[in-house]
Amino acid sequence: MSSRSYIVRVIVLTGAGVSAESGIPTFRGKDGYWRNLDPAKLATPEAFAHDPKLVWEWYGERRQRIRNAQPNPAHKAIARLAQCANEFLLVTQNVDDLHARAGVPNEKMVQIHGDIFVTRCSCCDFSDVGNGGSAALTALRRDRPEPPTRGQLRLIGPTSAQNERLPCCPKCSAPMRPGVVWFGEQLPWKEVQRVENYLDRGACNVAIVAGTTATFGYIVDWALQASHGGELIEVNPEETPLSTFATRIMREPAAIALPRLVDEIINS
Ligand code: OAD
């Protein structure tokens, strides 16, 4: 990077495809979650109200799969870029901790759809960072804790068969839920502010969008705003709504394309 004579501002927007090669399923891809499972039954506040046990089981399985996974060369390349760029922000839709475990510092990363290892109250502001891990803790701790257990959080009594052994809030007794954004919910305001503040400070020389179908308008908007006047590089084996705006397209798996791309940026 030192050979560059201008400030390199970078934004990277990632989605499930970046973790695919770590063995984490995508949502809409060939073996994606939403091919066999109904998001309305697992990833909405209504689903949680209707059957919290089912929802917790699904998130428990996902937590376990993530704990067993390792960052792949795509995560590591992004972490390298975070270290080398003069200004850097990663906006990930992924709720896993693989970017953090690859070495992207918390202050350079926004998890816009939350953190699967956080457990928070469904009613009040109580958040059990000790039991699931905030992004900051995530970066520090490799050994992920188990989902809530008896004694760590109060549990809803065994009189309710459906809610048996589910965690409830020590402050207000409402059910505790995974700290992720579900369909129909607002994005976390503070995290949106962090993205918008970064974009308001100026356009980026390079915007990389990797491993996302760019289904959500805010991802498209942020990518276009960031790349205004600069490069917009798409890393995805498939076409997306952003493809027509991209100045460069890498139709390859992220674990292949990103290490090469980051080498190019760093050495240019
Ligand atoms: P999707 O499952 O919608 O898209 C995954 C994208 O990754 C697709 O465009 C694939 O072509 C691409 N892909 C697959 N394998 C890849 C690889 N090895 N390298 C690079 N790209 C690859 O996942 P997201 O776009 O992340 O939200 O989905 C966005 C949100 O929708 C998720 O955060 C989740 C989901 O519903 C909620 O649960 C609220």
Description:
It is a single chain. By secondary structure, the protein is an alpha/beta fold. 37% of the residues lie in helices and 18% in strands. It has 12 helices and 11 strands. It has helices at 17-20, 33-36, 39-42, 45-50, 52-68, 73-84, 98-102, 129-132, 135-140, 189-200, 217-227, 254-267; strands at residues 9-14, 87-92, 109-111, 114-121, 127-128, 154-155, 167-168, 176-180, 206-210, 231-235, 248-250. The strands form 3 sheets. Strands 3-2-1-9-10-11 form a 6-stranded parallel sheet, with helices on both faces. Strand 4 and strand 5 form a beta hairpin. Helix 6 runs parallel beside helix 12. The radius of gyration is 19 Å and the shape is globular. Residues 1-5 and 131-163 have low confidence and may be disordered. The protein binds 2'-O-acetyl adenosine-5-diphosphoribose. 2'-O-acetyl adenosine-5-diphosphoribose binds next to helix 1.
Outline of this structure?
37% of the residues lie in helices and 18% in strands. It is an alpha/beta fold and 268 residues long. Bound molecules: 2'-O-acetyl adenosine-5-diphosphoribose (OAD).
Describe this protein with a few key phrases.
268 residues; alpha/beta; three-stranded antiparallel β-sheet; binds 2'-O-acetyl adenosine-5-diphosphoribose
Topology (elements, then pairings):
Layout: E1 9-14, H1 17-20, H2 33-36, H3 39-42, H4 45-50, H5 52-68, H6 73-84, E2 87-92, H7 98-102, E3 109-111, E4 114-121, E5 127-128, H8 129-132, H9 135-140, E6 154-155, E7 167-168, E8 176-180, H10 189-200, E9 206-210, H11 217-227, E10 231-235, E11 248-250, H12 254-267
Parallel strand pairs: 1-2, 1-9, 2-3, 9-10, 10-11
Antiparallel strand pairs: 4-5, 4-8, 6-7
Helix pairs in contact: 6-12
